[in-house]
């Protein structure tokens, strides 16, 4: 009797695990589907936008040069040029998102990529008085990655963390190698505003944003790049306490 109970208990646990795996796979498929639909839309919109922005940009630049310094009309044209630039950068985001380049894998140094990305946001960190703490593993091996794409991953995650934090808070970036040596892990832990339970399932959706000037594409780009590297990304968050993004990447891209 006890044996039967034990066996059926085991079977139930197995069934439960299989169900959880199925749920997870289904959720991943839904994310993929959403990404590909949004990708197609984004490509069309981005092209239209870029062409129009080009014409607006050239025309306003022409007008701008006609006005003398001190002329208030020059300020207006300058304001338009700034906005055109902002829209151009959003469009570049969209184009990147819609038509990603194929990753070019090379043996790369994750710490160098992280350092380079941190130096890109150094000024922002100084202004915000945020300290970036590096807790790097001493023995991290080189891994097969696309340097540029991985820099984009780091930049998006750091940018989000800085947005989430107040002054004088802390961002910890740590790396580690798994004992069996097949995977490495990179963690970005901030002490920012955190993400509510309601929102956390949506943060990887394209165009989901709670930021005033956000496009909502950062994390969906991150998600896709990590996937292209056969890696995984997880998020843990506590409202008003902070958020951790955990990325695992295989050392080699070969099966
Ligand atoms: N570290 C974080 N802490 C708290 N909320 C976060 C964090 N990272 C992401 N989020 C939430 O997830 C949303 C989506 O992030 P995502 O990077 O995709 O877009 P975005 O930052 O709003 O815009 P952008 O396209 O400029 O990156 C954010 O608007 C924010 O609400
Ligand atoms: Mg972002």
From TrEMBL:
Which GO molecular function entries does the Swiss-Prot or TrEMBL record give? ATP binding; phosphorelay sensor kinase activity
Protein name per UniProt:
Histidine kinase domain-containing protein
Q: Which UniProt keywords apply?
A: ATP-binding, Kinase, Nucleotide-binding, Phosphoprotein, Transferase, Two-component regulatory system
N-terminal signal peptide = none
Does this UniProt record's set of keywords contain Membrane? no
The Histidine kinase domain covers 44-253
CDD domains according to UniProt: HisKA (cd00082)
Keyword presence, Phosphoprotein: yes
| Annotated source species | marine sediment metagenome
User: Which is one Pfam family of this protein?
Assistant: HATPase_c
């Amino acid at each position: 009797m006890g044996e039967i109970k034990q066996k059926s208990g085991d079977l139930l646990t197995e069934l439960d695990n299989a169900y959880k795996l199925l749920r997870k796979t289904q959720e991943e498929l839904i994310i993929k589907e959403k990404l590909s639909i949004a990708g197609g839309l984004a490509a069309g919109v981005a092209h239209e936008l870029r062409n129009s922005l080009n014409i607006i940009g050239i025309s306003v630049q022409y007008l701008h040069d006609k006005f003398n310094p001190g002329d208030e009309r020059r300020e207006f044209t300058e304001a338009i040029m700034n906005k055109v630039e902002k829209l151009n950068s959003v469009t570049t985001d969209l184009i990147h998102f819609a038509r990603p380049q194929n990753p070019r894998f090379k043996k790369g140094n994750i710490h160098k990529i992280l350092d380079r990305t941190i130096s890109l946001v150094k000024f922002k960190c100084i202004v915000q008085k945020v300290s970036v703490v590096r807790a790097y593993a001493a023995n991290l091996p080189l891994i097969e990655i696309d340097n540029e794409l991985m820099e984009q991953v780091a930049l998006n995650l750091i940018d989000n963390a800085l947005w989430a934090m107040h002054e004088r808070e802390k961002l910890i970036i740590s790396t580690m190698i798994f004992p069996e040596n097949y995977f490495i892990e990179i963690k970005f832990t901030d002490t920012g505003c955190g993400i509510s339970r309601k929102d956390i399932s949506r943060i990887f959706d394209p165009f989901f944003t709670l930021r005033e000037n956000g496009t909502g594409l950062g994390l969906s780009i991150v998600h896709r790049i990590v996937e292209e590297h056969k890696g995984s990304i997880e998020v843990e968050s506590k409202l008003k306490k902070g958020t951790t993004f955990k990325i695992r990447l295989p050392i080699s891209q070969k099966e």
